[in-house]
Structures
1.
Amino acid sequence: MTRLDEGAQALPAIQEWIEARLHDPSLCPAAIAAAHHISVRQLHRVFRPTGTTVARYIRTRRLEHCRRELGDPLLGAQRIGAIANRWGLPDAAAFSRAFRAAYGQTPTAYRSRAARRPPVTGRPPVTGRPGKRLAVGPTGVA
């Protein structure tokens, strides 16, 4: 087995390990490499086929989690800084710059737009025939 094959096999386990620790602001390539008993250089080799760096992967995953929570109406009362902090991004200014660079708008603007979107119920409307909506009772049955 070549080193490349070993890296390809190790990548999902390393990504899973990272995902479980995204909340830790001290998460960095050196800590990841040490936890997996490889050098930082080898860790970067493992990530090379993904087209991103380890640090960029961490930042992207953190921002994705923050974006998802900012769009969640159930978390609308939580401060933006608290959400960012929960995902390992304690510097509010750096978080805001990174979010804007990734999504083209500030976290506040994203949350505001997300709040104006209609809620997703998770199921399509109940219809009898195309274009005609049936009344649905409290049990969900027409």
2.
Amino acid sequence: MKRFRWRFGQTGHVYYFAPDTLEWESTELAYSGFLNWLAEGDLGLFYQSFRWEGWQEEMSRLGDGKVFAYYPPLWVQEGSGESSSKAPVPVTEAWQAARSSG
């Protein structure tokens, strides 16, 4: 049986597509460690640079299949969770924008 080799880094680690760098980044955690971090880790600290005052209320009104698009986007120097304007867009639109920019 041929073993699958992850092309981005170490096999067995959980990766995520970082909205501020447009790169796949390792959490440096195996799946079980990642689940433990989700349950007990500091999610607030992890997402701190992507959030803004009042984000909880705005998130509660975000429709299914939608995410916030930031302008300027997070992957440019001027972009930030606090100062960029935000608008709900379909997740597929946000993904296409990130793919075409990265």
